[in-house]
Fold this protein.
Amino acid sequence: MNARRTHLKQMAALAGFAVASLAGVGARPAYAAQTELTVLYAFPDLFRPAMEELARRFMAANPDIRIVYSAPAPEYEEVLQTVLRESVAGTQPDVVVQGLNSVRAISDEGDAVPLDPFIAADKGFASHGFNPAMLAAGEVKGRVYALPLAISLPVLYYNVDLVKRAGGDPAHLPTTWDGVIDLAKRINALGSGTNGLFYAWDETGNWMWQSLVFSRGGTMLDASERKVAFDGKEGQWAIGLLARLVKEAGMPYLDHSAARQQFASGGLGIFATSTAQLATIQKITAGRFPIEVGTYPDLTPGVSRLPSGGNGLMITAKDPAKQQAAWRFVSFATQPQQAAEVARLTGYFPPDEKAGPLLTDFYRANPNFAVAVKEQAYASGWYAFPGSNGLKIIDVIKDQLELVVSGQHAGDPDSVLASMAAQVQALLPK
């Protein structure tokens, strides 16, 4: 038993997430449900409306199954820890909505059910219209362990009022980091405690760090997955750009949740984060100022890639009857109609091609939601580090990035990168 699993499973006696009845879905039907499925997801501030609507629709179509959501986890890492910890006692959820970078960890530990037999037996599965590249995001060693539910890519949110006051043109937003930094400087110069820019360096799973490195054509590890590769020229550029955002653009030392609140209050001009935040950001800025969404800067066809964020549905139930019921929920949730509704309620975009036409009018009326869709040509996998130390590696990278963001080592980012690479190398499988 590996070190990570041993540590997590020593916590099995601790109380897990409390199972709560689904809120907002309506009263329990008069009939007795034959099967009850517990489902765990993350980011309730982003996903709660979509998940509640999904359960309402599913239970209406499947009255013999009741969906009960566990108390949502704050981030995907907590979903992973819950599954590994609770599987010892057999109390793990029946279905989890897991970040695509953690599918590998759950499957490697044997806590996920391969979906290939269910797919083969489901005559209606072909009607889902999954983009092959998106479906591959849920594969591990040639087997499907997750069906992608919602996909995200990094974008930049702009406070239109501040952009205009700083002399920028919301109709022609910057397409390079130099242009973004220049605009951020001008927003900073407006004074009154206004900050120009924040880059969500601490997003779950080192996602925005991967975005920087991948956008230059770099990788996290070499092809053997035994040696760090992010310390090459691509990583040097990436850590240098983060330092520039601190030194030149005056990026404040915050976490992404605090930065989102500052953006909502009108005190931040540019917020670089996930398209998944769009519905929430529109809600919290409504009536205060208009926003525009811009593409991730400096994308070069044939070179740049962006990690596909988002999540997939995994079956973690051990009981065969529960597994059959869970497949019905997983299959239903990933149908084009449901995927399109998740996109409307969040800011993610659907992983299946047949959902796209269902959103044509929506994207026309809501062009901010369509920005990430235009970046799909650059979409690639959200990298998951191999071995038992995957979560430790995520924390190491986050801690090292914080040294730059905090300003402590913004003047010497290369030394931070060297330390990051050395620490990650020591945690990789030998």
